[in-house]
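User: Hello! I'm new to structural biology and keep hearing that structure can be predicted from sequence alone. Could you demonstrate with SDR family oxidoreductase? Please show me the input and the output so I can see what each looks like.

Assistant: Of course. The first part below is the input, the amino acid sequence of SDR family oxidoreductase. The second part is the output, the predicted structure written as tokens.
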Amino acid sequence: MTFGNDLFTGRTVVIPGGTSGIGAATAERFAALGARVVCCGLGAAGGPRSERIESRDINVLQPGALDDFFASLNQIDVLVNCTGVSRDRDEWKKEKFDEVIAINLTSVMDCCRLGRSRMKSGSSIINIASMYSTFGAADRPGYSASKGAIVQLTKSLAQQFAAENIRVNAVAPGWIVTPLSRALFADDVVSAPIRNRIPAGRWGEAAEVADAIVFLSSEAARYITGVCLPVDGGYLTS
């Protein structure tokens, strides 16, 4: 998708979970469009690199970490909540299930709550849902439950924040090539049946999810709030 290189000039984009994967691609996209980008998450030293991107190492499970992070920010024009983990079959263990919910859902609500006072009329929040928001996953109950909840949280926040003209939307990525999925993608025995179900005929790229996030954050989507936009090459339709 083509956007003007100055589309977000003068705006501050904050991306919890922006140090890798879809979050990092989103940070790079906004920076290329002129925004100042502030990311936080684990592994900040290996995060995206640009004179417009600042990455801070933060563990969202550490008490007070997000409070301190948001207290350091004066302005937020776009908040993109990309923090998320999956623990696969370990999620059937209570401690792992609770951890996934805390990171994927509770920390997102914390970011929205903490960021709200730093957002003005016309600002935007984008949450990251998943194709698993639509159907369950036997091997990752915490992940699918948290991502389903993200859709409902997005709707609730959209209603609550509308009076302040702050839009809240979500994107639901499908099969996207990221550092976490690269091994699965490279295993043709596993990935071929997935690819064959995708009407677009291929896995998606993190940059394509970033483009959807940019759209929902832009004036082109000024009358859109409370939606969850699939970015999956048609996977959910097949």
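User: So the tokens describe the shape?

Assistant: Right, they're a compact way of writing down the 3D structure. Reading them back into a model, for example: Residues 12-175+205-231 form a domain with the Rossmann fold fold (CATH 3.40.50.720).
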